[in-house]
Amino acid sequence: MAPHDPVPSPDAPGASALVDFPVDLTSQEVLRRAQVMEALGPHWDPVEVLLGEEAAYDLLYSGLDPQQQHLYNALVTAGVLPARGNGRAAA
After folding, report:
1. CB of 71 within 8 A of CB of 90?
2. Under a CB-based contact definition with an 8 Å cutoff, are residues 76 and 82 in contact?
3. Who contacts 61 (Cβ-Cβ below 8 Å, separation ≥6)?
4. Which string of DSSP letters, residue by residue, matches 5-67?
5. What distances in angstroms separate CA 81 from CA 11, 33, 38, 59, 75, one per listed residue?
6. Is the separation of the CB atoms in 34 and 57 below 8 Å?
7. Which of 30, 40, 41, 53 is 20–30 Å from 77 (CA)?
8. What is the pLDDT of residue 2?
9. What pLDDT score was predicted for residue 91?
10. Is residue 9 left, alpha or beta, with left meaning phi > 0 and alpha meaning psi from -120 to 50?
11. Which residues have a Cβ under 8 Å from the Cβ of 58 and sit 6 or more positions away?
12. Do the Cβ atoms of 90 and 56 come closer than 8 Å?
């Protein structure tokens, strides 16, 4: 099915040239970042958040049985998971 209003080829007779239409989103990006920081609040501590993530990963990969440890090691070797600690999941 053909479009109702096809776009003419730039080489077609009577075709107009494309016009550059720049849009500066700087002010919107500054506003968005300010709103994110406001939503996070004054007590947000990025270092604490990262340490909490590390603790969660340690807990997630702790106490693996031999089969799970083998699969974990295979995923690390394949680059699917990042290596942690001494090359083994957290004990």
Report:
1. no
2. yes
3. 72, 84, 89, 90
4. SPPPPTTSTTPPPP-------HHHHHHHHHHHHHHH-TT--HHHHHHHHHHHHHHHTSS--HH
5. 51, 30, 33, 15, 6
6. no
7. 53
8. 58
9. 46
10. beta
11. 84, 90
12. no
